[in-house]
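Session log. Operator J.P. requested a structure for one protein chain; no other inputs attached. Running the standard single-chain path with token output.
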Amino acid sequence: MIRSLCQVLLLALFSLLAGSDSAFAKTYQVYFLGGQSNMDGYGYAKDLPDDLKESVPGVMIFHANSAPDAVPVDGRGLWSELKPGHGVGFKSDGKENTYSNRFGVELSFAKTLQQLAPEANIALIKISRGGTSIAVEAAGNFGCWDPDFEKGTGKGQGINQYDHFLAGMKRALQTTDIDQDGEADTLIPAGIVWMQGESDAAYTEEIAKDYEANLKRLMDLIRATLYADDLPVVIGRISDSGDNPEGKVWKHGEIVRAAQAAFVEKDKRAALVTSTDEYGYSDRWHYNSEGYLDLGRNFAQALWKVPRN
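Structure written below.
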């Protein structure tokens, strides 16, 4: 019920925003950033280059509060100018953001987009949660993006990461004046950036083999939520630190990597970023600061090259 209601509301909101005819309103290109912990971001703000240590003028971000499955939908956040602190540990109560000392791909991603399209206004919606899977069987205690995943009791019964995603999108799009300049803004969906798959590679071969179909279904749903069935998608290929006595952290990582490549090969509006194999790690699961900076740049450049027609 909540998914159907939210989807209707989101479509209505996009229709209203697209119909704004204010002479002073800005048009923003909106990019969704989603996934698990390597989308959360484990880079350290102290490692940022000088041009990214402060806010990024002209770029707005709505970073939805992360929440586990089986709790009432959250999605709280507020539009603010992009700056460091949107990595792991960030949270929002919908009235105030609490920034962490970490960052993810959002800073270099936005900066690169500005270089590619200096006249464009950029807005980011970030909704991610570490450890989450797409497959129901790989959810563990972190969460699941499958819309049909049901867990919990009471008010949290059946609430999953897709429900939290819809709640975050609804809250983000209810704000028509995202830059608080007194004029309603037009928000145009421009792309999806997805960094996830490690959890689906950690359990069984069967789960990993299902990843291509699960990824396709989820990307189709997110595109539909953003009212753009051909919206460009960029997938970050999972990689492995090898920091495990058995040799691999993600037991079935190669199967998921092949599934990611297969999804992109079959989808004319999708691209795969493979530079993750070159990154160093801050721990056995997460890239180092330099890796997140490079990944953000590569995400932006890959999206820019995806055919639009």
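Operator note: The radius of gyration is 18 Å.
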